[in-house]
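We treat protein structure as text, and this decision shapes the records that our systems exchange. Such a record has a labelled line for the sequence and another for the backbone structure tokens. The record that follows is passed on verbatim for readers who wish to inspect the format:
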Amino acid sequence: MNDVVNIAAYKFVPLDDLKELRRRFRKRCVRWGLRGTILISTEGINLFVAGSRAAIDKLLVEVRNIPGLEDLPIKESFSDHQPFNRMLVRIKKEIIAFGVEGIDPGTRPSPKLPARELKQWLDEGRPVTLLDTRNDYEVKLGTFRNAQTMGVDHFREFPDAVGRLPEELKEQPVVMFCTGGIRCEKAGPFMEREGFKQIFQLDGGILKYFEECGSDHYDGDCFVFDHRVALDSQLQETDAALCFVCQEPLTVEDQQSLKYVPSQSCPFCYKEPEERLSITIDQRQEAIRVATTPLPGSTPYQNRRPIKVPQRFDGFEFIEFLCSCLPHVQRERWQGIFDAGDMVNDEGPVSPTRIVYSGERFHHILPRMIEPEINADIQILFEDKSIIVVNKPAPLPVHACGQFNRNTLMHIMAEAYRPERPRVAHRLDSNTTGVIVMSRTKHIAGLLQPQFQRREVEKAYIAQVHGHPAHDEFACDAPISAENGAVGVRTIESGGLESLTEFSVLQRLDDGTSFVEARPITGRTNQIRLHLWHLGLPIVGDPLYLQDKQVGPKQTLSLTDPPLCLHARRIAFNHPLTSERVSFEARLPDWVSIATVIRK
């Protein structure tokens, strides 16, 4: 669902007391969970911000309460994810860097041409020069048909580029345009000063034109300065990407090129793989080290933990729903959260006796959260333009859950691979080590994920279990509950989800434990651990599924606990681009005995 509202707005108006404005914007935006950039200067404001509808509306009220900004126009679009990593509020000399003194769009702007009027001019074939004031890398993804480009890599180069324009343009009508209009606010008065007599600027830029006129007379998409990279004429995110190395925007066709290696190269900066491989891995490991030094969850921050009401709790009082859904949390703890005003929806704090309905979303706010420490020794085993394969350490959650939001594999990899957002193709428990595969784009995820659903992926784990299995080869097909049970964990349950794991004994040890290879045919949560527990062979170090069919008090181990002796050793699948069968293997952890006979 496109439930993230993205706004872009600017206005040239005299502003003062900039430090107080910065403090106020920063405080409120963080409180409201907004991300993006707000630039303020004595000449005005320029902002790109994204967040919930309610939060965006609060920000607009705040901005429009400032004298001179009461009628601030905005451009809106929507996305299914937050396109910004953080919230920045900065004081700048200019809200759009130009570097030419004496240009004052606030008092002497060029005439603005409404989007519909430009379309009418073009429909009628009126003689007019369309001038694209954007940088070359933006123009590459799309521009108006027959538009004149400036051949610049930065807007500061624009004044020099104007001097290279044909002299006859000074007597002809020129309509300049950019993404949202702000660059033209300065480019127009400058060109008038240079002798151009019929200068117009497209009001609201390309984005406003898309909103009112669609794609008429425009070819391609519009580059935007966030993780969406480009928007189409419906203001929807496209499949365009950004080259991490040279910052060149890449079309879908560019991304299919053999020279496109995400975070390494693209058709515009390609080098032979042999030149890049070892350097790339070293750079990636350094990026992970930087992203985890200190651990991202070690600094206090406000965490908004989402809560969605399942169908079976429709009509419950809020606190009754929470106590029933999460019985391991005491009722008094929930009541304290409500009393502190830390259980909210888009309208603000909610009451514990409020009736909740299926599908409703709330947030539990943790105002100064510090996450438990994790093992961040993530090792890159392989990467190419489409996938990443890592050896995951433990304890390290893959996704945000429980006490973990930033100290997770997903968050760390997103930081290390920015601006990409790698997606995991399958799950590993926080306490499980070993090989895990990630997709580098949404497109690749769509090619890789179905292989897991069709059971075409081969996975092999090694585990140390309590007891000696009776047979060298055995299997378990006990069904697994679809949801957390009464104890807050998944269990073996009659009528649960179909599940199958095959096992082979590798070695029976004198201490009463054994090493086994586990090959999950299905992919249920905690499947290997549950099946071995059900067979009376619980995994050594498992804090949850204990011996004698007992359930332990916690799910996630700490750094000082003995390890869970379960390791994802090998995975094989068809490469999402080449369809070639590929296999990856992770180094064995220290708890595996060197004497163990490892089946090839």
Observations:
- The radius of gyration is 29 Å.
- Residues 297 and 405 are 7 Å apart (CA to CA).
- The chain has four domains: 4-91, 112-231, 301-369, 379-585.
- The longest strand covers residues 4-12.
